Each structure stands twice: as C-alpha cells, then as structure tokens.
Amino acid sequence: MQTRIGENGNCWEAVIASLLEIPIYRVPDFPRDDESEFVESVQRWLSGMTDDLFYCRVSVDNPDAIAAFVTGDVWHVIEGTSPRGGPHACVGLNGKIVHDPHPNASPSGLVKVDCFGFLVSRAKGGM
C-alpha cells in the first residue's frame, strides 16, 4: 500500500514495490515534474537494483500494448486518472487492475487508463 496520498502520493512507488516484491521503503521517490527526468531516474534506479530490468510505458491506444497479454500472465503497472482526481497507478494483470494501493481505494481503481508500464528483462548473451 502507498504510504502517502494526495499531490505527493507514492502510488507508483507502491506498485513497483508490489511487482518487485520488495518493501516500499526500498523504492525511492521519483521526480514527477519532468517526464524525461522521471524516466531517467527510474532507469538508473532499476539498473542499480538489477542490471537486467528497465521500465517501458506503452499507451493503451498502441496495439502492441494488448499484444503483451496474449500468452501467459503479465504483471504490470496501469497508469491513469484516479476517481479522486489526478494521476494514479495500480497493479495490473493482463490489462486488468488487480490491486489499487490507495488506502481508500474505490472499486474502479481508475476512471481513465492512459498507459501500461512494464518491467522488461534485458536479454543476456548474443543471438
């Protein structure tokens, strides 16, 4: 569960902690003011945690987003707009919300879904 709510909430960090099965305190607060700074900070942190993961966001309008759910179970982030207003993140499984980290979560989780976020493993070795 997220430990802060409101404008400085840490729902995204709570979702990442859930996906990685680590305590939330091990996930740093990432900057939200600048999208490119956010992505760079996340990639740097992930590479320090494990050298084989990176974060990839895909718009829900992108056909490749749905293609990820064709075979097997895929756990991921779902980002969008909270019923309370403002951006929010939830844990997803195959494109559906399975956990809302907000302590006062509504049944819907999100009123609008913008993108899916995937923790992707880098290939090891050559082809």
Rg on CA atoms, Å: 14 Å
Q: What is the averaged pLDDT score?
A: 90
Query: What is the count of distinct domains?
Result: 1
Q: Roughly how much helix do the residues carry, as a percent range?
A: 10-25%
Order of helices and strands: HHEHEEEE
Strand portion? 25-35%
Q: Pairing-aware structural class of the strands and helices?
A: alpha+beta
Number of beta strands: 5
| Low-pLDDT runs | none
What's the arrangement of strands in the largest beta sheet? Answer: 1-5-2-3-4
Helix count equals: 3
Main beta-sheet strand count, sense and barrel state: 5 strands, antiparallel
Structural description of this entry:
Strands 1-5-2-3-4 form a five-stranded antiparallel β-sheet, covered by helices on one side. It is an alpha+beta fold and 127 residues long. 23% of the residues are buried. The protein has helices at 11-20, 35-49, 63-67; strands spanning 53-59, 75-81, 87-93, 96-99, 112-121. A hairpin with a 2-residue loop joins strand 3 (87-93) and strand 4 (96-99). It is globular, with a radius of gyration of 14 Å. It starts with 10 loop residues before the first helix and ends in a 6-residue tail after the last strand. It is built from three helices and five strands. The protein has one domain (6-121). The chain is 24% helix and 28% strand.
